[in-house]
Backbone:
């Protein structure tokens, strides 16, 4: 293992930033957040996507003696951060819901022995007895809670296991907590601090406003054609988000057929294919990557000029995060959401699919036990490979409500579910150096591969190291299958602990399997979540259909009131065309639309029906809308909204 540099040798956060990250200065708010943490204050840090949240806990942790515990729900992001820290020579490890008992035990013991600086945990691991027994023995000096909106029942991705964080704080008296998120409404901000037992309220936030990001909404029935037009008008690389795996493939093929280099990415692809698509895009070999929301976490490509949403997102929180992956280099970039009337209908219908009836969820849970062959009272802590399509076909279940039923069972604490993520193979040598030497002498057929492992990878005696079997096979000049066979043999003999890469979906039982009649779905898991998701869907519809500044609408949703119009989004550009101020246009347009929904009105009657507005401005707005086709005249010369029958 690479030795950690002593914090005493790096006297200030600025020194640490320079030494490990090679930056000369902090981004806005980072230094203020770090100072508060070093002063021992519980702190909620609100920074937009790309705002550098991880530095806000990693830098102060390196200023302190002891261990930083990091709780995060995103396995792919955890693994990415751990690898980045290791590359900097910082001892870090992650214990996820899918780590083996042996790996979990070894990593927790390393934390107790002071061999780790950062220990990342999925929230479900906080309930693990192995962790609870070790926690009092760890010298924890900082607790970091990433994606902290997950602890709030009003957050868009509530995870009940996060509520365990407050419980472990009782075992860590005097240890400050830093909570971090990129998306939180005022209600969520308040709830996070309450749920984490802040000593006193303390929020440091950077404005969610992205000056360089130009938002736009486009209503179209020809989404593929619109995407092509947008891509052709833009420069540089881009992301097109699709709502389904099939959509990503179709869009990529459509663009390729028209001469644009494009790849597609989703959780259903193999690890090799996902990695290949991601790396080609990162290198610029493919200009566009078409992806589901499985793509993006931990991806730091600064020069993304365009993010297009081919399908409407379920919430403004997820849209803001995904759109925020454009323009991280500070240069102008665009974020466009496409929609049609069917999307609005589907957004409402999606709520029912996301919250199947409790009886359906009990049926899914019972069927899972049969499918995975888990007996009642068994299964706790065990991980099983899982195919949603095969499962649904075998038990005559619908895939969409079944997928979301599993999600609710996960949030209720019964299961952990991974759709598949790129976790590479991991290896650790679990015998002493002397014992390993004896094995090499006694088993010459293993000697060569052991020597290659020791030459290619450092730290194998101290911790788990990511390895690539194909890399070992090339060095040994043998087939990759032979390398895997020998590693599995050494694992069985207790020489190494070898976890082969597995990007297939997996299910893990967090508690022993129960009879389905004992399942409970508290209101905060089911009905309150359903109500909250309905409200979020309405906020998305409002964003799509309101003609106010897009940036202002987003900022208002996240609690920044009275912000200035950006002057650059599609709404602002349209509003400049009619010559009215934003507020003036919005008030008159709403009043005129409400009036014409109720009755037909002649142009000379507008002043009488809407006396609160100047007559000349009403006539000017009506004429502008007639020219644009938003209003029409019937044979009685009455104004009516386009698309409405007589």
Residues:
């Amino acid at each position: 293992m690479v030795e950690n540099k002593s914090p005493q040798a790096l006297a200030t956060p600025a020194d640490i930033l320079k030494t490990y990250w090679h930056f000369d200065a902090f981004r806005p708010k980072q230094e203020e957040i770090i100072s508060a943490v070093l002063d021992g204050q519980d702190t909620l840090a609100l920074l937009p996507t790309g705002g550098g949240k991880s530095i806000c806990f990693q830098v102060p942790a390196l200023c302190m003696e002891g261990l930083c515990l990091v709780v995060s729900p995103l396995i792919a992001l955890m693994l990415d951060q751990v690898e980045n820290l290791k590359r900097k020579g910082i001892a870090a490890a992650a214990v996820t819901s899918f780590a083996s008992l042996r790996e979990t035990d070894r990593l927790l013991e390393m934390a107790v022995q002071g061999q780790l600086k950062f220990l990342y945990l999925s929230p479900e691991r906080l309930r693990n007895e192995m962790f609870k027994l070790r926690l009092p023995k760890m010298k924890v000096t900082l607790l970091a809670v990433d994606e902290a909106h997950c602890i709030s029942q009003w957050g868009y991705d509530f995870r009940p296991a996060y509520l365990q964080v407050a419980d472990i704080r009782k075992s860590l008296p005097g240890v400050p907590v830093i909570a971090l998120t990129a998306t939180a409404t005022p209600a969520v901000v308040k709830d996070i601090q309450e749920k984490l037992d802040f000593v006193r309220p303390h929020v440091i936030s950077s404005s969610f406003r992205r000056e360089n990001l130009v938002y736009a909404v486009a209503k179209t029935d020809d989404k593929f054609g619109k995407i092509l037009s947008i891509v052709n008008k833009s420069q540089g690389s881009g992301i097109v988000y699709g709502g389904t795996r099939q959509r990503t493939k179709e869009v990529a093929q459509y663009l390729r057929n028209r001469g644009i280099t494009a790849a597609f990415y989703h959780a259903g692809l193999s690890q090799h294919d996902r990695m290949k698509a991601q790396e080609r895009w990162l290198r610029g070999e493919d200009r566009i990557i078409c992806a589901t929301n499985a793509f993006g976490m931990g991806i730091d490509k600064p020069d993304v000029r365009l993010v297009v949403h081919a399908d409407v997102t379920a919430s403004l929180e997820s849209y803001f995060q995904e759109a925020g992956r454009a323009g991280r280099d500070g240069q102008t970039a665009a974020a466009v959401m496409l929609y049609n009337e069917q999307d609005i209908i589907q957004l409402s219908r999606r709520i029912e699919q996301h919250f199947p009836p409790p009886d359906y969820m009990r049926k899914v849970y019972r069927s899972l036990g049969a499918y995975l062959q888990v007996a009642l009272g068994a299964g706790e802590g065990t991980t099983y490979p899982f195919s949603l399509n095969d499962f649904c076909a075998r038990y005559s279940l619908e895939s969409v409500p079944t997928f979301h039923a599993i999600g609710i069972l996960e949030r209720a604490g019964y299961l952990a579910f991974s759709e598949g993520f790129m976790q590479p193979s991991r290896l650790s040598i679990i015998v002493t150096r002397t014992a390993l030497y004896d094995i090499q002498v006694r088993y010459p057929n293993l000697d060569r591969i052991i020597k290659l492992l020791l030459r290619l990878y450092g730290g194998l005696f101290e911790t788990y190291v990511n390895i690539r079997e194909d890399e070992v096979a090339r060095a040994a000049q043998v087939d990759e299958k032979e390398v895997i066979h020998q590693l599995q043999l050494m694992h069985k003999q207790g020489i190494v602990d070898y976890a082969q890469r597995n990007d297939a979906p997996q299910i893990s039982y967090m508690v022993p399997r129960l009879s389905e009649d004992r399942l409970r779905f508290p209101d905060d898991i089911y009905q309150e979540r359903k109500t909250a998701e309905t409200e979020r869907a309405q906020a998305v519809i409002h964003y799509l259909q309101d003609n106010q500044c897009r940036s202002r609408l987003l900022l208002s949703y996240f609690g920044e009131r009275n912000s200035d119009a950006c002057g650059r989004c599609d709404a602002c550009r349209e509003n400049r065309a009619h010559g009215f101020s934003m507020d003036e246009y919005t008030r008159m347009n709403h009043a005129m639309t409400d009036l014409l929904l109720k009755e037909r009105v002649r142009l000379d009657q507008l002043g009488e029906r809407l006396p609160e507005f100047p007559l000349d401005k009403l006539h000017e707005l009506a004429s502008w809308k007639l020219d644009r086709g938003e209003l029409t005249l019937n044979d009685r010369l009455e104004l009516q909204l386009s698309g409405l029958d007589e």
Notes: The first strand starts at residue 43 and ends at 46. The mean pLDDT is 89. The two ends are 77 Å apart (CA to CA). The first helix runs from residue 13 to 21.
